[in-house]
Fold this sequence. Notes:
UDP-N-acetylmuramoyl-L-alanine:D-glutamate ligase; alpha/beta; 4-stranded mixed sheet; 12 helices; homodimer
Amino acid sequence: MSEAQQNSPYENTLYENTPYDLIVMGRLGVDLYPLKAGVPLDRVETFGRFLGGSAANVAVAAARLGRRVALVSRTGADPFGVYLRRELETFGVGVRWVTEVAAYPTPVTFCEVFPPDDFPLYFYRQPKAPDLEMRPGELDLDAVRGARVFWATGTGLCAQPSRDATLGALEARGGAVHTVFDLDWRPAFWMDQDPHPYYAQALRHATVAVGNIDECEIATGTRDPHAAAKELLGAGVELAVVKQGPEGVLAVHRDGSSVRVPPLEVKVLNGLGAGDAFGGALCHGLLAGWPLDRTIRWANAAGALVATRLECSSAMPYAAEIDRLLLLATGGE
Amino acid sequence: MSEAQQNSPYENTLYENTPYDLIVMGRLGVDLYPLKAGVPLDRVETFGRFLGGSAANVAVAAARLGRRVALVSRTGADPFGVYLRRELETFGVGVRWVTEVAAYPTPVTFCEVFPPDDFPLYFYRQPKAPDLEMRPGELDLDAVRGARVFWATGTGLCAQPSRDATLGALEARGGAVHTVFDLDWRPAFWMDQDPHPYYAQALRHATVAVGNIDECEIATGTRDPHAAAKELLGAGVELAVVKQGPEGVLAVHRDGSSVRVPPLEVKVLNGLGAGDAFGGALCHGLLAGWPLDRTIRWANAAGALVATRLECSSAMPYAAEIDRLLLLATGGE
Lengths: 333, 333
């Protein structure tokens, strides 16, 4: 099947009864980015608007790699919600489970872009984001079970009914390979609640855990990458992926294999979205059945490419771009 | 005193101990406007950011007419708050009473621009706007009493502690001429509360009431302009100003005089902000001691000018522009 077919907005019609390669469940919103890097937010005069939200970005990243993807999320009943659904379809992401919530506006997020490593975010998700109104009873659990990869996030656990919906979907997978839990720890969304019991519950149903070092510390209590990976395996997954930023990526499998991939030397413009590009490419590698080493190197390169670009969703790389960067990075070996 | 002096950012130093011409109390936020008119919000790709909020716009409008103005309001403790304070100062509006609230982000408002008469707004002021955290104990009531004109708004009554602060400031005026109450009715901010008792209380302390026909209906129960004006006079003010949109403006004074000004024929680009330009110019006329007829005609022209422009705050007209439009409109008489 060609990439053009896969990314077609008509995918829902063409492949109505086949399972999705990937179903992603979680955050969706509008990102408002300065059109110039290095300008503090109080001096930014014009903003570009982009599709955003970690889960949505992972879905877009995988769709761009030719995968058949659907998102489970919610928006406000407003023009920004209309935009997001249309944009997802344009990117080839199925939106049948992206529904409207009348009570809350579509979230918007402003960011400041200070390369290479400072990208503060300003969230407008109050009093509640529509994507936290995902309800257990409204999920298509057959589709969730049937997906070749299912991806849920820690943010989905921060409020009800999204928490029950997310845990219910993970449980419905019955430990099926591949069930990914993205630790996605955003302290601002949790107020004074303790995330630990919910993270532990999610990890029991997942086969893959992905997180950066801060997120691993929340889930496992340690900032040591190897120790954190071991704890994640102990919590129930078979593959633990620890993103260490400038230190690269560590992946440890229950079978004893492990991979440590150094970061690629790229000129970072906007680090936001790199983790989501990594996630989409990780799913692609899992679906392809690639060896762990190839999958993590490839995902690492996908993240690096997005970091060189201002946008997140629209900047998600195509497979050929990732191959080319890896070829360049290894000196054409 | 020259206009240049009046608009100087050094005004606080130069005139530290003189009373303000105008103190405005109320809403302040960031407006995000499409850079092209006629594009629905779900299709807008880039937004310009502007100073917004009805009270802030009235302050800017009066400052641009050479008046010494200060705003009483609050912002979040964030980069948008920094921007708003700097922008107010650039416009010549004193910001000593524009303070930060740590708990809430600076509000942002998106708008759609469908000339000539459809300008939907999308407010992000949840869970609470910082400007509703104005507190009675933090007001400089001597300055409020000393101002030659004091301006408060109905939105200031929609939540505590802003309600007590607004009513306290109005009461502190002791019926001094001129104390303006801008009805400023925004149903979205009131939830299920009944505004009537608070509006009645505010009007008892005001000498001028200003509102459009919807707002007058909330305050008085009638949509008939003359009947509404009569009710407003009965509620305590000496001057009632009813903005009727395409029907022009009706102003009725307790002394029996009244003025009806037809709308000016202009090509409307964005009607938002026209009412605030009207308000700033109304204050200018009151301060100048102009006859009612001249004041209302002039304020009407100021509003018409802003309606021909995309922005609100930065589009507030200078006195010479208003004179010129009136001269053109009367065929150069």
